[in-house]
Amino acid sequence: MIKHLIQKEWDKSADAWLDFVRTGKDHCRYYMNNPGMFKILGNIRGKQVLDLACGEGYNSRIMAKKGAKVTGIDFSKNQIKYAQEEENNNKMGIEYFIQNASRLGRFKNNTFDIVVCFMALQDMNNYKKAVKEVKRVLKTQGRFIFAMPHPCFERNVGRDGISYTVKDYFTAKAYPLYWKMKRLTKHFKTTSFHRSLSDYTNALYDADLLISRIHEPKPTKQGLKVHPNLKENLLIPQSIVIEAIKS
Ligand SMILES: C[S@@+](CC[C@H](N)C(=O)[O-])C[C@H]1O[C@@H](n2cnc3c(N)ncnc32)[C@H](O)[C@@H]1O
What we know:
Blueprint lengths: L1 H11 L1 H9 L4 H15 L6 E5 L5 H8 L3 E6 L2 H13 L5 E4 L13 E7 L8 H11 E12 L5 E3 L5 E3 L7 E7 L8 E7 L2 H10 L2 E7 L5 H6 L12 E8 L1
Parallel strand pairs: 1-2, 1-4, 2-3, 4-5
Antiparallel strand pairs: 5-11, 6-7, 8-9, 10-11
Helix pairs in contact: 6-7
């Protein structure tokens, strides 16, 4: 079953992922996608926030520092183990659970002010169900904010090391993602899904979540200084951030 495969992949890569994220190697996050997403998030002080598919908790911790009451869920037990270890060492009041995003039964209806999903919806096999669950656990007027690789300009490095952009835009399909950058401690493979932009917007529409803003992040000035290769994203966006509201 593809869900189990994806879960195993993220369990297996948890140590390499932790190193990637925590030791300054995730350039796109620090210098483009997080600034883009946090711009849309705005002031979250005092808000109840669910970090959907939180991984080892990098963004959960940022949101907690900004004064939000954060709950993080991820279906990879190893990602949550690392997130929890960090919470135990440096208490920020974040609660973590091993949980599938499309089964949020432990949370009551209307619990959260904001649900955030950073670079993970494209990794979920049952994204429609996850979106419906997001709607259920959000309070009325609550916001769902997610960032994902831009479906129109997705790039992938295949097994052969060749980078390509999406070729068959309208066909939704799973594809292997080979994490092969030199800066990783270990190469690893995960599975993602290509879907069209309207696949995602229809899922929001079907769940009664109304799109309020779309943002296509560009690299920051500092990012361009430190990593000049990010300048290609001044021309073509690497990611898209979407905010939708529960009416
Ligand atoms: C690219 S990582 C992003 C992690 C995190 N959001 C961050 O900012 O570092 C994708 C994450 O999605 C999680 N994931 C994928 N499908 C999931 C699902 N159905 N339910 C919960 N987590 C899922 C994986 O375990 C992995 O931790």
